[in-house]
Amino acid sequence: xxxxxxxxxxxxxxxxxxxxxxxxxxxxxxxxxxxxxxxxxxxxxxxxxxxxxxxxxxxxxxxxxxxxxxxxxxxxxxxxxxxxxxxxxxxxxxxxxxxxxxxxxxxxxxxxxxxxxxxxxxxxxxxxxxxxxxxxxxxxxxxxxxxxxxxxxxxxxxxxxxxxxxxxxxxxxxxxxxxxxxxxxxxxxxxxxxxxxxxxxxxxxxxxxxxxxxxxxxxxxxxxxxxxxxxxxxxxxxxxxxxxxxxxxxxxxxxxxxxxxxxxxxxxxxxxxxxxxxxxxxxxxxxxxxxxxxxxxxxxxxxxxxxxxxxxxxxxxxxxxxxxxxxxxxxxxxxxxxxxxxxxxxx
Length: 347
Known about the structure:
27% of the residues lie in helices and 25% in strands. By secondary structure, the chain is α/β, with parallel strands linked by helices. The strands form 3 sheets. Strands 3, 4, 5, 6, 7, 14 and 15 form a 7-stranded mixed sheet that branches. Helix 8 links the parallel strand 12 (239-247) and strand 13. Helix 6 (208-215) packs across helix 7. It is globular and about 60 Å long. 43% of the residues are buried.
């Protein structure tokens, strides 16, 4: 994975997708290395995170964050090494995480960069997964919004993904019954055998609603929403009075260009919220909980070091393969946290 260190390869947004992204929406280009201003760091990307939210950034529809501009670098979190520093708090060779985008090198203000610590120094790529944003999302969404109590039933969609797999494991640590929803028999088996879920239901099963009801005979007290669509339709009738629904993502809808076909279910949703006094709350992890990152890092670090948390990483090699990997992720073809390795750890 060595390269010309005077050239920065980067992948930019070439056009906005209509529906599902295609390879033509991206462009790989080369530029000179960025120069450093005062207070900046030059970072060499080693691991790039791919996440479902990136599809939203490719659109110019109103959202919680500004879209990626045409011909600008695709946004994304990355673990990098510092190769040059204009800030006294960082030195060459430091491991850091930052939103530096889909590129080999980036010049970033030091105030926007966080050093890796603890277990992440031994396993740098995990700072993009279990020890990073997905883990933080699972931890705060479940514990602060979901507020699971021992003996309750917690259901999580995308159960083998980087967020869902951790939601289930944290819920088990709280003494809950955990039911996952995943795509395919292999993923469902893995959720039970590797992540310790009590049950897992295949969302591709035509009898999804019946299978979920069988797995949750006492109803659902917490539903961690990652998917939406038909999965939520199966969950809604099973929600217990005063159930909590943290809304993290709606990956089934990210490529949609309009409202879904069929009956309008808004009235059913709102009437159920009222009758059952449900609490549904969306959240954007660093906007809403950034000030509590230290709390997460300490607890997750302890669980991870005690081998109470398992993970699965789906690693891709090469920056040039990032576009197709994101397309595959949005189609559910990944198995675990998707990380693109761009550089070598010992470069």
